[in-house]
Write a structure and sequence with these properties.
The structure holds two protein chains of two kinds. Chain A is mainly α. Chain A is built from eleven helices and no strands. Chain B has two domains: 222 residues, P-loop containing nucleotide triphosphate hydrolases (Rossmann fold, 3-Layer(aba) Sandwich); 115 residues, Nucleic acid-binding proteins (OB fold (Dihydrolipoamide Acetyltransferase, E2P), Beta Barrel), CATH 2.40.50. The chains are: A mainly alpha, B alpha+beta.
């Protein structure tokens, strides 16, 4: 028995080690560049002879041509990511409540049609979306990107929240109805508190989707002062003599907020709030 | 306080009619139990009364007011669900006060009512706990407390004890009954367990296949079931039923069944030759030292307070319950006598009672 468990664990570790290396290697590479001096970045050492934090200083003080708008661009990224997360949550939560709890006629069909849009790669939709935003006169504003991202994130978000909603016992709604709750009260006082863990997960998903987006941001935003940091990082590569150590230092800073969000919300990523509602 | 009236109720789900014209009057303050096998429509009837489903035709009235089109929340009812349906994110206190909070009741009054309900149900020490921190019996009591604080016109219970173990179920049964005796609120209680029905009800409505078979006080149903279904459903162990033919014998009328002659109540006069179902409850069969119907003991089940015997007569097994400990063993040959005044006869074809 113990032997079998040990062998199962050994197998898991054998699989885990390559995956871990595969995941961590690029991050190690970024870190290596970010703490190297410009002249030793390509030296091929496993660890720089003289590690330095000067690259980070250069980034936050905007001391390079590519970094003149660093703070503005990271603020753009933050604003767009949070607005996308909030709007997606707003739409998806109401939609999931309507489809799953109120059983609105045609709700499931609407959800399936929305999911069907994922059959078309987002890259194909970029041009029509660009056109649409241009018609709305939103090009070069953050709303163009926010709205595109919400469109892309919503079907999945609705689907996930609907699945989570379906797991809440229907008796809760019935009890609340008899207790005198109107649908808005049911939504606010019973549904929202119970669906909150899934909302955190979905909000994070939409937020990171927008945070990491490159193509749409590149297409719809073109001024140095309104692009996101993702696009700004891409600009680094336009030089003949790219400042790799600054690119990697900026990239590392760029990766910090998502990591922080994951860390902060890891508690909500697990469900279990519904325990005790009904006897199963 | 309120009376409830179902008038010719039908309910159709997806073209399947599950209730076929059910009528039932429930008096003010009465504890009525709807009992029947699963799928008989008892829960549907309760949900119609709760306003969780809409009637297909017919009328439901609460206190002479037709409520067919009235929202659940405006029917002034409270319901206890089989699964308890407690709000998992709210404490016991918040769960119980929720309906009053929705009605914008003053906080001090909510506190007072919750405290009173908690006192009645022994929940005072748990008011600040979440449902998941309570045992099954405690959750059940919270669900009842949530109903009590409303002080509704009608209490609805949908199989509230099914999820509890046997011992707790018996305790909660007594608790619900004493609660009703204290509050005298009109109560409609759904269960598939005829023991719950017998022990708790003022009146029982036995349902089967979308119809009410019989309505009456528990002992009335037990002593005078109107048909074969009620006779077999009410009572545990169930009534012994055998097919037989009325025949003239020993200067009177008897039923010939399983190769023996079985007595019937003296007052019953029926034409010989009629084919019937002959029913006798286990406690109305006795072992005889003298003459009687011959059989064999198949199983002896000592219950402590008494003994349950499975007796083989002909090719049929009959159950006998005695309140002493007879000195018999499996395969013993025995003789049975029947308490003739407690015999039930039912028509062979219609299954209706014959008096």
């Amino acid at each position: 028995m113990n032997l079998r468990r040990a062998s199962a664990e050994a197998k898991l570790i054998l699989i885990a080690i390559p995956i871990l290396i595969w995941t961590l290697l690029p991050i190690y590479h970024i870190l290596l560049f970010a703490i190297s001096r410009k002249d030793s970045a390509f030296a091929g050492n496993l660890w720089p002879d003289q590690p330095t934090l000067r690259n980070f200083g250069a980034v936050v003080r905007q001391e390079h041509f590519f970094l003149y708008h660093f703070w503005q661009q990271i603020l753009n990224s933050i604003w767009i990511a949070f607005a996308t997360g909030a709007l997606t949550l707003f739409i998806a939560t109401f939609a999931a409540f309507a489809i799953s709890r109120l059983r609105v006629r045609g709700g499931r069909l609407a959800m399936n049609v929305a999911l069907f849009t994922y059959f078309i790669p987002a890259a194909f939709l970029a041009i029509p979306m660009y056109k649409a935003m241009s018609v709305y006169g939103l090009l070069n504003t953050s709303w163009a990107l926010i709205m595109s991202m919400v469109v892309i994130a919503s079907p999945y978000a609705i689907w996930v929240l609907k699945q989570a909603s379906d797991k809440l016992p229907i008796e809760l709604d019935e009890a609340a109805r008899i207790d005198g709750a109107s649908p808005p009260q049911l939504f606010r006082m019973v549904y929202l508190p119970l669906i909150a863990p899934s909302m955190v997960a979905i909000g994070t998903y939409a937020l990171l989707l927008a945070w990491n987006e490159y193509l749409y941001a590149f297409l719809m935003l073109s001024k140095e002062t309104n692009v996101t940091l993702a696009v700004a990082l891409g600009h680094f590569l336009s030089a003949d003599d790219s400042p790799w150590e600054l690119l990697m230092a900026t990239g590392l800073l760029y990766a910090l907020p998502p990591a922080a969000i994951y860390y902060a919300f890891r508690r909500f990523m697990v469900t279990g709030l519904t325990a005790g509602a009904v006897k199963s | 306080m309120a009376s409830v009236r179902f008038h010719n109720i039908t309910k159709v789900f997806d073209k399947v009619e599950v209730l076929h014209g059910v009528s039932l009057d429930i008096a003010d303050g009465e504890f009525t139990v709807l009992v029947g096998p699963s799928g008989c429509g008892k829960s549907t009837l309760l949900r119609l009364l709760a306003g969780l489903e809409e009637v297909s035709s017919g009328e439901i009235t609460i206190n002479d007011r037709v409520v067919n089109e009235v929202e659940s929340k405006d029917r002034d009812i409270a319901m206890v669900f089989q699964s308890y349906a407690l709000y998992p994110h709210m404490t016991v206190r918040e769960n119980m006060g929720f309906s009053l909070r929705l009605r914008k009741t003053a906080t001090s009054l909510i506190e007072e009512r919750v405290a009173e309900a908690a006192r009645i149900l022994d929940l005072a020490p748990y008011l600040n706990r979440l449902p998941r921190e309570l045992s099954g019996g405690q959750r059940q009591r919270v669900a009842m407390g949530r109903a009590i604080v409303r002080d509704p016109q009608v209490f609805l219970f949908d199989e509230p004890l099914s999820n509890l173990d046997a011992k707790l179920r018996a305790a909660m049964r007594a608790e619900i009954k004493s609660l009703h005796q204290r509050l005298r609120t009109t109560t409609v209680y759904v269960t598939h367990d005829q023991i719950e029905a017998m022990t708790m009800a003022d009146r029982i409505a036995v349902m089967n296949a979308g119809r009410i078979e019989q309505v009456g006080e528990p002992l009335e149903l037990y002593d005078r079931p109107v048909n074969l279904f009620v006779a077999q459903f009410i009572g545990s162990p169930a009534m012994n039923i055998m097919r037989g033919t009325l025949s003239a014998a020993n200067g009177g009328c008897m039923v010939e069944a399983l190769g023996a002659l079985w007595p019937i109540p003296a007052a019953t006069t029926l034409a010989p030759g009629r084919r019937v179902h002959y029913g006798i409850r286990p406690e109305h069969l006795r072992l005889s030292d003298g003459p009687g119907i011959e059989g064999f003991i198949a199983v002896v089940e000592p219950l402590g307070a008494g003994t349950e015997l499975v007796v083989r007569v002909g090719d049929t097994q009959l159950v006998l319950v005695s309140n002493y400990r007879p000195a018999v063993h499996s395969n013993d040959s025995i003789r049975l006598v029947v308490d003739a005044e407690h015999v039930h006869l039912f028509d062979e074809v219609s299954g209706m009672r014959i008096d």
